[in-house]
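Lecture notes, unit on protein representations.

Consider one protein chain, 279 amino acids long.
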Amino acid sequence: MTVALEGRPGRARPTLVNHNLTTASGIGLGVSMIWFSLLVLIPLTAVLVTASSGGWAEFWRSITNEQTRAAIRLTVMAAASVTLVNIVAGTAIAWVLVRDRFPGKGLLELVIDIPFALPTIVAGLVLVSLYGNDSPLGLHLANTSGSVYLAFLFVTLPFVVRMVQPVLEELDMEVEEAAASLGAGRATIFRRVVLPSLAPAIAAGAALSFARAMGEYGSLVLLSGNLPFESEVTSVRILSAIENDNQAAAASIAAVLLVISLLVIVALDILQRRVARRG
């Protein structure tokens, strides 16, 4: 914003902006930083310090242990696969909920939020009842690696749906109709008009989905059996290390999960920015 100089209409000067915080803003910022530090920064720093307490050799030995490597590999592969499924399925479900009208829509809206409402141990009990050794569906996934994928799918289902749905509701359909009137096909409209607007929401939902899966424990306890090299995930390895009074090993594994999650979040952010620009 500019303001013309008096008597010289042809010249303008920028409006002065006050960058000083008010007393209320300063207090609010201070409280926010203290709260964020207590809940996030200090605990994360403590984990990293504990992980490095035994030296690099001990850290490397903890995370390259054969059983730990198998658990990390299974956890990352399952979390990544489930996140990809959620990106597609979650976006499709959000699209149906926003753009279509059908009987039972309200019930579907309610069912999608069940993984948010259920305690994870209860979710594990539900999954065991349906997919355990006495499965009424004939699907016996207990004590297999498939149980990990199933549990991750259950607890991460709502993230992409609930992130994409409000964005879809705010999209102006007149833009899509204008593109259609100019001869653009449905695929082109989705790729060039809709997808760039949804990309940030999809990326945010995918990041939440991946992070939740990486740290999931409760829904796996009853179904997976925690079998080494078969269905054991990193959260179980961390708990085992703590029970064996090996805090450094537990912190080392947690630090690896932290780094992997941060890398995935950064990669998703870069990807969604590129998609938005190309649109």
